[in-house]
Structures are given as C-alpha cells and as structure tokens.
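Researcher: I need the complex structure. Ligand is zinc ion. Inputs:
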Amino acid sequence: EIIEAGGQVLLPGFVDLHTHLREPGREDTETIDTGSAAAALGGYTAVFAMANTDPVADNAVIVDHVWRRGQEVGLVDVHPVGAVTVGLKGEKLAELGTMANSQARVKVFSDDGLCVADPLLMRRALEYSTALDVVIAQHAEEPRLTVGAQAHEGERAARLGYTGWPAAAEESIVARDCLLALHANARLHVCHVSTSGTADVLRWAKDRGTKVSAEVTPHHLLLTDERLATYDPVNKVNPPLRTESDAEKLRAALAEGVIDCVATDHAPHAVQDKDTEWSAARPGMLGLQTALSIVAETMVRTGLLDWRGVARVMSERPAEIGNLADQGRPIEAGEPANLTLVDPDAEWTVRGAELASIAANTPYEGMRLPGVVTATLLRGRLTARDGKVC
Ligand code: NCD
Ligand code: ZN
Ligand code: ZN
Ligand code: ZN
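Model: Output:
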C-alpha cells in the first residue's frame, strides 16, 4: 500500500512510559484491547502498562499475562511495569529479578500509585536495580505530606476550601531519591513532574552526575489550577494541576532536556468515579489519543520544539529510558519500521465519547487541537490509519 504523505511529518513510533490499562481488575474502564486501540490511534507503538492493577502486577504471572495479552491484540507493544513492592503500599520488595527474567522481560519497576515512602526500601530497590539493569520509576509524591490533599496548595485551593497538596511533597522525595540513586549508582526515573522546583532539583542532580531521567504529562504542560474554578472532577489528577508559572517552567525544562520526555499517565476512570463530588472523585485523566496534539499546541506552536525535538521527547528518549532496543530510532535497511505519520497543520475537536477508551474522562472535551495522527505502523504493519484501527 502506498501512503500519500505530502506535507506530513514522519516520526519514530511514540513510546509511552506511563499508561494505566486497568487490566486486570477494572475492565469496566479500560482493557488491554481498548487501551491498545487508543495507543495506536494516538501514534504509539509501545506503552508501559502501570502496575497498580487489581491484583497488583507484583509477580511474573501477572506481568506475563499483560505482556501476552498485548501481543495477542497486536496493536502496540505492551510492556508491563512491575511493582517495586508486594501489594499496594507494600512493605516488602517484590521479586524484581523474577519479573525481569520472565517472558515479559520487565524493564521498568514503579511505585506508581504505590508509594515507596520508606527510604530504606527505596535504597534497597535502587541497589537491586543496578544488578538487574532495570530502572526504578518514582511516583514522586511524599505520601505523608499529601494526607487528605485534593488540589495544588495555593490561593485557589484555599478559596475553594480544598486541602492543599504542596509542591514540597513532590520536590522533597525527588531530591531524596536522586541522592539515593547517586549513592547506589542506579538509574531513577521520575514520573509526572509537576512543579518548577522539581525541574530545579533535576537540573541539580543531573549536574552532579545522577543517572536520573524524568517525564512530564501533556496535561501539566497545558492545564493549570485555574481549572479548579469549574469544580469539575475531570480536572482532578495526581499530581494536581499546578500554576501557570509551573507549566511555563515545565515547558522550558522539556525543551532544554532537563525533563527528558513526555508520558501520558493515561488514567481511565468510570463515570461513577468521576461524576461525583470533588473529594470522592478518583484522580486521573485520559491521555493516549490527545498527547501528540497537546505537545503540538504547547511545544511546537510556541517554537519551543521542532518536529525533530518531538521525536526525541515522544519516542527516542522514552525508548532509551525503558530499555527498548527496537523502538525510538531510525530503521536500518530491511528492518520493519515503527513509525508515526502526523499531519501538523490539520486540526480536530476532542470528543470523549469518540475516543477508543472505554472511559471518557478527557479534560480536553470540545477543544480544537492541532496535529492529527494519520498513520501508525508497528513493525511495518499499519495499526491505525486516518482515525481508524487497522
Ligand atoms: C493514577 C491512576 O488513576 O491509576 N491517577 C492519577 O491521577 N495519575 C494513579 C496515580 O498516579 O496516582
Ligand atoms: Zn502517579
Ligand atoms: Zn506513590
Ligand atoms: Zn500514573
């Protein structure tokens, strides 16, 4: 088949280091099937499926199930993330080695949604990870500083009566874990950076030679706590939407490389878990099908990144961080390619109900956005074409 691509941009297939696919446990909100479709339509050829499923992905049986299910669906490589600890908020290290050597060959271990608050546990995980050559991803929240927290601590949250979630909850644990990673000579990946202070901590740690990488979500690049005024829990997310000055510094840090890449933190939720009062609503928002457009809006239209830079933050760096040898790079002669074709000038209007995910919790409902994914190829085979899964 010949793909007419005049005026379009050809990029290496996108890699998402941070996707919640909800299988097993919450198949009413997303499955590996529907999440893979959303990923392919969003231009992704590989996603890392977060470990906070039910049951938690803390053993080889579950990670292998997730890996095999992804291969059966065949729309995107689904790399399971293993939990650092046994169970949610576990106090015991999971068998990282067993998962790293299982069929799924787990490359990333995360506490996402599972907080490694104990510094000794984190130190052991980091030391263990160097021997296995895997990366520990940190959810970047000191849970003891966010008890009852509901929104970015500041004037807006105070006015609305929401308990504040301080920037220091993120910055203090990122600083701690950067120091522990340097001590253990381990690789640390910081999930969903949301404050300008965290960017400063990362710059400081990188300057000292810490093997730390970091991601920022599309929503933290674009949205701010001004959204609180709508009272709509679609805007409730971990970490919370911060200030305009934070978002501005995050965009600059991404352009500069202090923040390495964009990750969606795609977090599907059921209607009954979102259409409720703010305090009861689950945190998280959809991201796979809107990520490219938000990056185009915040980074390309503003001149902060060119399309070469988009390839770096959406594909090359995440593939390197996640240890994927077959993603995020130009193809060699005769090798089946992972590619994404984007029409940079086309625009589209976001409709949650039309997205491939079972859940519809997009904060971009009704927004007109630039950048349309026109084709995605996984190992030379079309997985999405003109808004339809192949
Ligand atoms: C995540 C989820 O829904 O699993 N939610 C979110 O707001 N990012 C978990 C988490 O990271 O807290
Ligand atoms: Zn998280
Ligand atoms: Zn956590
Ligand atoms: Zn997450």
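Model: Summary of the prediction. Residues 299 and 305 are 5 Å apart (CA to CA).
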